[in-house]
Amino acid sequence: MRIVVLAGGIGGARFLRGLKQAVEGGEITVVGNTGDDIHLFGLKVCPDLDTVMYTLGGGIHEEQGWGRAGESFSIKEEMKAYGVGPEWFGLGDKDFATHIVRTQMLGAGYPLSAVTEALCARWQPGVRLIPMSDDRVETHVLTEIDGERKAVHFQEYWVKHHATVPALAIIPVGAETATPAPGVLEAIAEADVILLPPSNPVVSVGTILAVPGIRQAVVAAQAPVIGLSPIIGGAPVRGMADKVLAAVGVETSAAAVAGHYGSELLDGWLVDESDAGAVAEVEAAGIPCRAVPLWMTDVDASAAMAREALAFAEAVRAR
Amino acid sequence: MRIVVLAGGIGGARFLRGLKQAVEGGEITVVGNTGDDIHLFGLKVCPDLDTVMYTLGGGIHEEQGWGRAGESFSIKEEMKAYGVGPEWFGLGDKDFATHIVRTQMLGAGYPLSAVTEALCARWQPGVRLIPMSDDRVETHVLTEIDGERKAVHFQEYWVKHHATVPALAIIPVGAETATPAPGVLEAIAEADVILLPPSNPVVSVGTILAVPGIRQAVVAAQAPVIGLSPIIGGAPVRGMADKVLAAVGVETSAAAVAGHYGSELLDGWLVDESDAGAVAEVEAAGIPCRAVPLWMTDVDASAAMAREALAFAEAVRAR
C-alpha cells in the first residue's frame, strides 16, 4: 500500500510513528512542510523535516517533541557570549551538526530534496521524506506588536512571542512561485491513500497545499484523502493552532477545520470521540466523518488512529 | 611602547602571554598568520588567529595549546554519524561557535580583519590582533604520498599526516596576490620594536612575510627587529618545524633559521643558552645574537624571554 502523508512537525511526526507501526510493509511517502524553515547563524534550519526525521529515526527528544535526545547547548552559550542572536531559538549542539551538513550540501549545489535524502541515509526513518518544495518558502505572520503592524517570520511569532501577539494574516512568502519538489506530485498521483495527520491546518498542511500544484494533485488523486482533526473539544491538541486559525477566519473546532480543507479535498474526516456531536455537521458539508479516539498519548494510540484512518479510506473507497 | 609581533599559533600565543606580562601598559599589535586557515564543513576556520585570541583571552585549552578549555565534541560525533569528513580535524562544539559567527560575518560582507576585531570584542585579548591579510591565503604542501606527488592543504599535511610524509615544497597559495590587512603596514612602520616570536619560521612567520609588502615594511621599519629561535639544540621547541625547514632547504638549527630570516630583516637573534655556541656563527652572518633561556615553561619564563628581547632591542637601537 502506497501512503502519502502531508506532515508538519511534532503532530505529524508522532502520527507517522503510529502509521509505521500500523502498516508494516507499506510504502510511506511524507511530504514535509518547509514553511517553518529559517536561516539562523548563516545556517539553513528545517524544523519540521528534522522533527520527522529525528522522531522516526530514533533521535528525537521524546518529552519535548522536537530537537535531539541527550542534547547539549555549548554553541548556544557561546553565541550569547559573542552577543550573536537570536537567543529565543534553541538550537542544540547535535542539532547544529544537522544544519551544518545541510547548509554545506546546499552550498555545494544540491537541492533540499537531495540533502534531505542524504540526511535520511543516516536516520533511516523508514519513510521517504520529501520537502514540499526545493524552493525557499517562508511563512511570515502579519502581527500587531506594540500597536504597530509588522510581518515577522513564523518562528519569531511562534517561538519568540508564543503566538501571544495578534496574528492578522499568515503569508507563505515565496509559495506562489514555488514548485513541488521532485517526486511530490508523482507520489500523490500514485498513492493508494492520502492522509492529513493532526498537523496545524494553516501553517503546516496549509503551507504544503499552498505550493502551486500540490492541492490540485491531491484533489485530482484517485486515492481517498482522509484527514485527522488537530482540534479536540474546541482546542488544539497541542501548540497554538487556534491563533493561526483565527488569523485565516476559521473557528477552532473540528468541524470548522474540515470545512476549511473543504469537501473537494477531503474524502473523509476523523474527529475525536468527544466531538461526536460534530459528525453530522461535517457530513452535512459533504464530508464523510467518523468519531474515533484522537489523543496520541503513545505510539499504540497513534497506530490505532492510523488504522482508523486507513479503514475509513477503505470504506469511502468502497462507496 | 608600540610593539608589533608577527605570530603563528601556539608558540606565538604563549610568547605573547609572556610579553603582555612583561610590558604592562605597552601597546601590542599582533599580525597573525592566516596561511593555516581552512574551510571545513562550509565554515571558515582560522586556527592561528583563534589560538592567539583564546590564549590571551583566557579560553584556551592549556595543556593542548589550541582549542577551548572544557570543550565537548557533540558536533564531531554527529558529523561522523552523517559520514561527513574530514575526521582528522578536531573541532569542538565551543570552537564551532567561533567559526559559525566568523563565517556568518564574512558572508555578510565583513572582511576578516573586521570579523577578528568583532570576535576579540568578546575575548579582550589585550592586544590588537590583525590577520596578515583579508585575502585568502592557504599554505599547501607538496608531498609524496604512496609514491605520488600531491599538493595537500597544510592542515592535512600537519594534522592528518603529522608531517610524516615527505614535504618537497611549501606553497602559500594566494600569497603573491594578497595585500596586507588594513593597519598591518601602519603598525609596522610606527612600531618601536618588532618581534618574531618562536613561531614556525616557514609556515607561520614565513607566510606572513610572504604577503607582498610585509617583509619590505619590516625591513624598512625604524624599529629594531628581534627574533627568538624556535629551534633549541637542533630540534623544534614544539611541533614539526624541522620537516618544513627541510622542505625549504634550511637546516634545523638556531643559526640556520637566523640565516633564513637574513641580516637584512633581523636586527637581533636570541638563541637558547644551550645554543650559546651558535652566537658567533650568527654574528658572523651580520646578525647581533645573544644566548638566553628560551624554554616557555610557564608565563613567567615567557615574560623573561620577552624582557630579554626588549632589552636586546634597546641595545641594538643604541648602537
UniProtKB/TrEMBL annotation, chains A, B:
GO terms for molecular function: LPPG:FO 2-phospho-L-lactate transferase activity. The keyword Glycosyltransferase does not apply. Its EC number is 2.7.8.28. Pfam families: CofD. Keywords: Magnesium, Transferase. It is an enzyme of class 2 (transferase). HAMAP family: CofD. NCBIfam families: F420_cofD. This is 2-phospho-L-lactate transferase.
